[in-house]
């Protein structure tokens, strides 16, 4: 679980062109109040100098087991670490770690460490898919080390493909989630995951719309965790903050609830899991004005807007699944953004929604001013159709996403 106490974090840096991104990772941990020790390889110092790492971390930097021998540094750094994050990790470094070598300070630190270890690879696509690298990654994961899936994008030179280092913010968020207990087993390998995220906009006229404050963070966090657990992820996204795309995910951008409805049903037949995390507008204007409506009392003014219901994406998905239209019989997860009142709690409203919608799992958030929407944290309850309720304590949206995936995978396993 998370703690407010400063952590001892080791940031390992291997010799790749993406080594400069480690500076952002170091700064993020330092700004969170953590004590950071940077342990680069000798090759890493060809890309970022020792003085830079020392200035950012506030700690001395060395690469060899022969420095500070009187303090047994090659043992103490790993023993005292609460979390180790290696970014970037080259194919060479992962090979040495998989073989258990201790020929520099970083490799020796990993041999000693008993804390969570998160490795973020960065290399050319051919290197990432080379059988030797694939085997080394599998070995590291079997030993309990978290190896993050690389991002897809522009690599060194003109090459494009998987192998790019994820954004530093993504690496820090995943590392924090792992430190807080999030599990990233490869239990979604070979599975297709369809997620909706963000808010929908229902236009009144060319410049105005009905919408909400959803940022899409929880939906993208669910995509991030699913991708890191091996899934092929598609996110149908409405209005979102400018969020980084999860590793290898496809993002389909939509505007209205009807757009989202159509996009979901073009893809639902291939899905093994469908997660409806979007905050969709339940109603839309009966008609869309072709020009900007003016203030005033005439019939074309904004004084009265007649609304009609949008399609219910979640309920329709369940109905079509139960009618056998989706060959993979997907587990369906809904969301309920609720506010309680003097008569009924948010949890009770969520129980009623779970029964009404017929989905397998429902994540209930109690929302309101300053709660959930647009925030980096979340909390609530996970309800299932068999009567189970799990309280989700406040944590990052990745922490919550990991718990939702634990519940979804367990639900399918028990079916």
From TrEMBL:
CTP binds at residues 282, 292, 311-314, 335, 353, 357. Gene3D superfamilies: CoaB-like, Flavin prenyltransferase-like. Residues 8-173 form the Flavoprotein domain. Keywords: Decarboxylase, Flavoprotein, FMN, Ligase, Lyase, Magnesium, Metal-binding, Multifunctional enzyme. It comes from the Bacteria. Residues 1-192 are annotated as: Phosphopantothenoylcysteine decarboxylase. Its cofactor is Mg(2+); FMN. InterPro entries: CoaB-like_sf, CoaBC, DNA/pantothenate-metab_flavo_C, Flavin_trans-like, Flavoprotein. GO terms for cellular component: phosphopantothenoylcysteine decarboxylase complex. In the C-terminal section; belongs to the PPC synthetase family. In the N-terminal section; belongs to the HFCD (homo-oligomeric flavin containing Cys decarboxylase) superfamily. This is Coenzyme A biosynthesis bifunctional protein CoaBC. The lineage of its organism: Bacteria, Bacillati, Actinomycetota, Actinomycetes, Mycobacteriales.
């Amino acid at each position: 679980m998370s703690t407010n106490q400063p952590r001892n974090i080791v940031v390992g840096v291997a010799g790749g062109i993406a080594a400069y991104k480690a500076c952002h990772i170091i700064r993020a941990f330092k700004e969170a109040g953590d004590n950071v020790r940077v342990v680069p390889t000798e090759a890493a110092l060809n890309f970022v100098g020792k003085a830079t790492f020392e200035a950012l971390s506030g700690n001395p930097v060395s690469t060899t087991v022969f420095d500070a021998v009187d303090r047994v540094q090659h043992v103490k750094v790993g023993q005292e670490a609460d979390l180790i994050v290696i970014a970037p990790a080259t194919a060479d470094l992962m090979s040495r770690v998989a073989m258990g070598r201790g020929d520099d300070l970083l490799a020796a630190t990993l041999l000693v460490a008993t804390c969570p270890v998160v490795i973020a690879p960065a290399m050319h696509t051919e290197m990432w898919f080379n059988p030797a690298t694939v085997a080394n990654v599998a070995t590291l994961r079997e030993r309990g080390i978290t190896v993050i899936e690389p991002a897809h994008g522009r690599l060194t030179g003109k090459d494009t493909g998987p192998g790019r280092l994820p954004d530093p913010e993504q690496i820090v968020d995943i590392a924090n989630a792992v430190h807080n207990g999030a599990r990233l087993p490869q239990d979604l390998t070979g599975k297709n995951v369809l997620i909706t995220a963000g808010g929908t906009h229902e236009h009144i006229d060319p410049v105005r719309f009905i919408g909400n404050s959803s940022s899409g963070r929880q939906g993208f966090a669910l995509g991030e965790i699913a991708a890191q657990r091996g899934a092929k992820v598609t996110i149908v996204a409405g209005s979102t903050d400018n969020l980084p795309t999860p590793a290898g995910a496809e993002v389909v951008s939509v505007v209205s609830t009807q757009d989202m409805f159509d996009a979901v049903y073009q893809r639902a037949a291939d899905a093994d899991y469908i997660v409806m995390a979007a905050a969709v507008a339940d109603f839309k204007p009966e008609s869309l004005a072709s020009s900007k409506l003016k203030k005033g009392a005439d019939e074309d003014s904004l004084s009265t807007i007649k609304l009609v219901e949008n399609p219910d994406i979640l309920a329709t998905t369940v109905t079509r699944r139960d009618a056998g239209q989706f060959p993979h019989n997907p587990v369906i997860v809904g969301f309920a953004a609720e506010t309680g009142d003097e008569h009924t709690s948010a949890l009770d409203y969520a129980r009623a929604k779970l029964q009404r919608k017929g989905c397998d799992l429902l994540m209930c958030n109690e929302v309101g001013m300053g709660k959930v929407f647009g925030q980096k944290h979340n909390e609530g309850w996970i309800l299932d159709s068999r009567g189970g309720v799990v309280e989700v304590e406040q944590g990052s949206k990745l922490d919550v996403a990991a718990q939702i995936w634990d519940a979804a995978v367990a639900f399918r396993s028990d079916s």
